[in-house]
What we know:
Layout: H1 3-27, H2 29-36, H3 52-57, E1 64-71, H4 76-88, E2 93-100, H5 105-113, E3 122-126, H6 156-159, E4 165-169, E5 173-175, H7 179-183, E6 193-197, H8 226-229, E7 240-248, H9 249-254, H10 257-270, H11 284-290, E8 296-297, H12 312-315, H13 318-323, E9 326-328, H14 343-347
Parallel strand pairs: 1-2, 1-4, 2-3, 6-8
Antiparallel strand pairs: 4-7, 5-9, 6-7
Amino acid sequence: MTLRRVNLVILVLLAVAFLIIVQRNLLNLSDFLHKESPDAGLILPFESELSPDLRRESVRKGEEIPVLITAAEDRLGAVVAAMNSIYQNSKANVVFTILTLNDTADHLKLWLSKTSLKNVKHKIIIFKPELLGGKISNDPHTLEAAKPLTFARFYLPAYIPEAEKAIYLDDDVIVQGDIQELYETSLKPGHAAAFSDDCDSASAKGIIRGAGNQNNYIGFLDFKKEAIKKLGMRANTCSFNPGVILANLTEWKNQNITQQLEHWMELNTQEDLYSKTLAESITTPPLLIVFYKRHSAIDPLWHVRHLGNTGAGNRYSAQFVKAAKLLHWNGHYKPWGRTSSFSDVWDKWYVPDPTGRFAPVRRHS
Ligand SMILES: *[C@@H]1O[C@H](CO)[C@@H](O)[C@H](O)[C@H]1NC(C)=O
Ligand SMILES: *[C@@H]1O[C@H](CO)[C@@H](O)[C@H](O)[C@H]1NC(C)=O
Ligand SMILES: *[C@@H]1O[C@H](CO)[C@@H](O)[C@H](O)[C@H]1NC(C)=O
Ligand SMILES: *[C@@H]1O[C@H](CO)[C@@H](O)[C@H](O)[C@H]1NC(C)=O
């Protein structure tokens, strides 16, 4: 090689490096990565500088990301805030399936159509509580008996029949990351679902033990009962929180997951199989049984939880909450209530109710 040739090669390399640096700075690394993804559709380099309206108009193409969420009348503001956070933080083609009760449907339709959410793709499906007949206790002391919608997640393939993969989210979440990333989490072969484990998660660090903060199976199931003993599960197995589920619906159907879950619901109405200290949702124990050692993992940052528990404000730093991809206010103190931690984060995504029937409780309002 002549000296001149070498010089030329160096010059070209320098030019390429320069272009890469410029491009990354302009587009930002995450946008850069998106551009590489074939399903993301065409992304304009300066899209973020278009007006919000123009951005919405650039119709979302690419693979649909189905998200199932439930809408209960007394917490409709939660669903709206969760949906808004998902939509604003992603360019993906998200399609919501919202399960609600008959009496709530009109209120929800109005809220979604008369506000900035009108372009968000969604369908509203009426959940029929009769579906649960004989499978949940009629005991009025069981709080959950009055909340049939919490069982909707057991019936995922019935509500999203056309999809192979789908996401279920509790309503008391805010998504700060790009939902596409959660959707692309891979499920192991033979697994029908992925959850975030309670032990190794960032949320579990410094967890306050006691009612409502169990992190293993014995906190949810009564291991003295024969039906539970027979399963041969280890009582100290780490539990998981089913407020965020990524599901392979093909596997779900193949393994009859819904029927298996119903089986455990029915058994529990005959004999109380769930832990006496069970403070969290009674939808969790059947899932723990059916998915025992048969589920994939969701990145802990995609399910930062316990924001609704006492002391959450001390447990998490503002930086950690900012870095979280998904925040979950499970526990007693909801962000639309008066005394919750980090309700300012939730407020950023809330879209006021055009009917005025729902309003977050705030000290100065
Ligand atoms: C990159 O873009 C994301 C959202 O598109 C933004 O949150 C983040 O702050 C940006 N990072 C830099 C270094 O500009
Ligand atoms: C649902 O509500 C509408 C009125 O909002 C009523 O006409 C209809 O009968 C209800 N359907 C059921 C199944 O309760
Ligand atoms: C879902 O499960 C089916 C059946 O095991 C498998 O063929 C398919 O690749 C899985 N899909 C995803 C997205 O994991
Ligand atoms: C699921 O249910 C169908 C019909 O009830 C049955 O034929 C099949 O064997 C079941 N599969 C599993 C894995 O239990």
